[in-house]
Design a protein that fits this description.
disordered N terminus; binds magnesium ion; about 170 residues; alpha/beta; Rossmann fold; seven-stranded mixed beta sheet; binds adenosine-5'-triphosphate; 7 strands
C-alpha cells in the first residue's frame, strides 16, 4: 500500500480560526473595550463587504475613545479626523472604498495620523499590499442578518490586547 501523500493531509481540517459571533450590541461593546487598550501608533484595518458593520465598529471605538458626537461615515471625504482632547487619543477614520486606483496615498495623511494617534481604515484592500504591517486586521462577515462573524489577524503588538479579555 502506498504511503499517504501530502495531498491527504492537506484536505484535513486545520485548527479553527479564531472567531466571535456578535450581534450589534456585542460588536459595539467589543469596540468600546478595544478602545481602552489602544495606544498611539495603532492601526486597525476593518474588512468586510458593504453593510458588514465596519463603520458601526469604528463608531464604537471612537465613542470609547471619548468622542461625544456623531461619527459621519467618511465615504465621500475619505478621511475624518478627531482631535485629542476631547478624545483620549487623536484618531483618523478612513473609508477607502472610493479611493481611485493609483491615487497618491500621501494626500490622505494616514501615516501622519499614525504618528500621533490611532488609525481606523475601512476597505484597506485599496491600500498597497503590506501597508501597515503591524495593524490589527478585523474582518466582519454576515451582512444582512443580525449576527456578524468577526475574525482577525493580530500580530505580536496586539498580544494581550486583542481579543480583549474582559
Ligand atoms: N451584528 C451586527 N453588527 C454590526 N452591524 C449590524 C449588526 N446587525 C445589524 N447591523 C446593521 O448593519 C449595518 C452595518 O452598517 P455599517 O455602515 O456599519 O457597515 P459598513 O461595513 O461600514 O458598510 P460600508 O462598506 O458601506 O461602509 C447597520 O445598519 C447596523 O445597524
Ligand atoms: Mg462604512
Amino acid at each position: 500500500m502506498a504511503p499517504s501523500s501530502p495531498t491527504t493531509t492537506a484536505t484535513e481540517p486545520g485548527p479553527a480560526a479564531p472567531a466571535l459571533d456578535l450581534d450589534e450590541v456585542g460588536l459595539r461593546a467589543l469596540g468600546a473595550r478595544l478602545a481602552t487598550r489602544l495606544a498611539p501608533g495603532d492601526a486597525i484595518l476593518l474588512e468586510g463587504e458593504l453593510g458588514a458593520g465596519k463603520t458601526t465598529l469604528a463608531r464604537a471605538i471612537l465613542r470609547g475613545l471619548g468622542h461625544p458626537g456623531e461619527v459621519p461615515s467618511p465615504s465621500y471625504t475619505l478621511v475624518e479626523t478627531y482631535p485629542a482632547p476631547p478624545l483620549r487619543l487623536a484618531a483618523a477614520h478612513a473609508d477607502l472604498y472610493r479611493l481611485e486606483p493609483g491615487a497618491p496615498l500621501d494626500d490622505l495623511g494616514l501615516d501622519e495620523a499614525l504618528g500621533h494617534g490611532i488609525l481606523l481604515v475601512e476597505w484597506p484592500d485599496r491600500l498597497p499590499a503590506g501597508h501597515f504591517p503591524a495593524a490589527l486586521r478585523l474582518r466582519l462577515d454576515g451582512a444582512g442578518g443580525p449576527i456578524r462573524r468577526l475574525t482577525w489577524t493580530a500580530g505580536p503588538a496586539w498580544k494581550g490586547r486583542f481579543p480583549p479579555s474582559d
